[in-house]
Amino acid sequence: MAQSGGRCLDKTDSSMGMAQQQAAVGVLERWGLPPAKAAEVSQGVAEGALGREQRAALILQIDSHLADLFENPDNRFGFMAMPNHNPFFEGRSPLSVISSGLDEDLEGVARRIATLAGQGSGLW
């Protein structure tokens, strides 16, 4: 068993992390990113506060919130590619914002989508 942050990891932890990562890449592709860019976004561009598993969890959380908001799959998967004119987005799509690969961009989009879905702190 490997050690991570003081806790033991076994193959199950590793497998779950890999499955979550693959699921996140699949969601990013459904939102319209090419496979290579989807993999890059799911991993992040620099060593930041968020690890790969945390980034994958945020991506899957965004997808879950969109599923709560939209019954129509075209809206659910298309929303992330639509330009948004709220101050945070400044006419950019949520997908273009998270495509930077920066932790703060992914976290910002996740917070705003959560708020839209009624799960956030009112930040939009």
Radius of gyration: 15 Å
Annotation, overall tally of beta strands: 2
User: Mean pLDDT score, rounded?
Assistant: 85
Taking the sheet with the most strands, its summary is: 2 strands, antiparallel
H/E topology pattern = EEHHHHHH
| Strand line-up in the sheet with most strands | 1-2
State the low-pLDDT regions, or none: 1-12
Oligomer: single chain
Please work out how many helical segments DSSP would assign: 6
Q: Give the DSSP E fraction (strand runs of 2 or more residues).
A: under 5%
Distance between the termini: 43 Å
Helix content: 55-70%
| Helix-and-strand structural type | mainly alpha
Assign an overall shape: globular
Descriptive overview:
The chain is mainly α and 124 residues long. Helix content is 58%, strand content 5%. The protein contains six helices and two strands; from the N terminus they run E-E-H-H-H-H-H-H. It has helices spanning 11-30, 35-43, 52-69, 73-78, 94-98, 103-116; strands at 2-4, 7-9. The protein has a two-stranded antiparallel ribbon with strand order 1-2. Strand 1 (2-4) and strand 2 form a beta hairpin. Helix 1 (11-30) packs across helix 3 (52-69). It is globular, with a radius of gyration of 15 Å. Residues 1-12 have low confidence and may be disordered.
